[in-house]
Amino acid sequence: MVMIRPASERGVTDWGWLDSRHTFSFGDYHDPAHIHYRSLRVINDDRIAPGGGFPTHPHRDMEIVTVVLEGGLEHRDSLGNGSIIRPDEVQRMTAGTGITHSEFNPSEADRVHLLQIWLMPERHGLTPSYEQTQFPDSARQGRMCLVASRDGREGSVTIHQDADLYVTRLEPGAAVHHHLAEGRFSWVHIATGAVNLNGLALSAGDGAAVRDEGLLTITGESKAEVLVFDLA
Predict the structure, then answer these.
(1) CA 128/CA 219 separation, integer angstroms
(2) What is the pTM of this model?
């Protein structure tokens, strides 16, 4: 069964420098029908204007994964980490007992487009930690590239939850497949472009909740980037 969450139905935050679309309830946007999906709590589709960003703010007891689609995002946190996240990298923060961080677009000319993803951790009170790993285009193009997992296999960043996150980039007509084990669930998010998922048309910003489907087949209808979550 595949249930589509259309991009047009997502929550919206517009602060001028920030254009954010919320797949699940977040901040002032509350939708009782879309609080979370399994352990997946947040997918925020953020576009930040040049020079804009979030000043230092706290988090706790959440696994936070950032995927940059366009531009660069400057990150600084209370653990002493400072970096710029680019489109070939994935960042993971375990907020645990508490962490503060800031996120800014360091460019004076170009916006940054990113997805910030929150997953509920397997337990509260974890030690805060940070990880940032490069996944080149060659690893994602036409392939299901594992970028986050509970056990950090295949060089993925480690998240403290029984969840896998894959990213793929597709050219028109190219297809990837993902086998969903019995009792597992999936969320598919179309980051850019347009695809066909098991016979259903999806485009940028659309999401889909999947259960009781043994095989996911994703075919590019245009050049596209897709995130696939495999969830307990």
Answers:
(1) 38
(2) 0.96
Comparing CA positions, the residue from 155, 162, 221, 163 lying closest to residue 187 is 163
3-state secondary structure the chain: CEEEECHHHCEEEECCCEEEEECCCECCECCCCCCCECCEEEEEEEEECCCCEEEEEEECCCEEEEEEEECCEEEEECCCCEEEECCCEEEEEECCCCEEEEEECCCCCCCEEEEEEEECCCCCCCCCEEEEEECCHHHHECCCEEEEECCCHHHCEECCCCEEEEEEEECCCCEEEEECCCCCEEEEEEEECEEEECCEEEECCCEEEEECCCEEEEEECCCEEEEEEEEC
Q: What pLDDT, in 10s, does the model give residues 23-78? A: 999 999 999 999 999 999 999 999 999 999 999 999 999 999 999 999 999 999 99
Q: Please choose, from the candidates 200, 201, 189, 198, the residue with its C-alpha nearest in 3D space to the C-alpha of residue 230.
A: 189
Burial of 60 (0-12, 13-18, 19+ CB in 10 A): middle
Report residue 212 as tokens: 């009781």
Q: Which two tokens stand for residue 1?
A: 């069964």
Bridge partners of residue 36, in order along the sequence: none
Calpha distance 99→228 (Å, rounded): 27
Predicted confidence (pLDDT) per residue in 102-122, tens digit: 999 999 999 999 999 999 999
> Could you give phi then psi for residue 9, rounded to 5 degrees?
-95, 0
d(CA 126, CA 99): 11
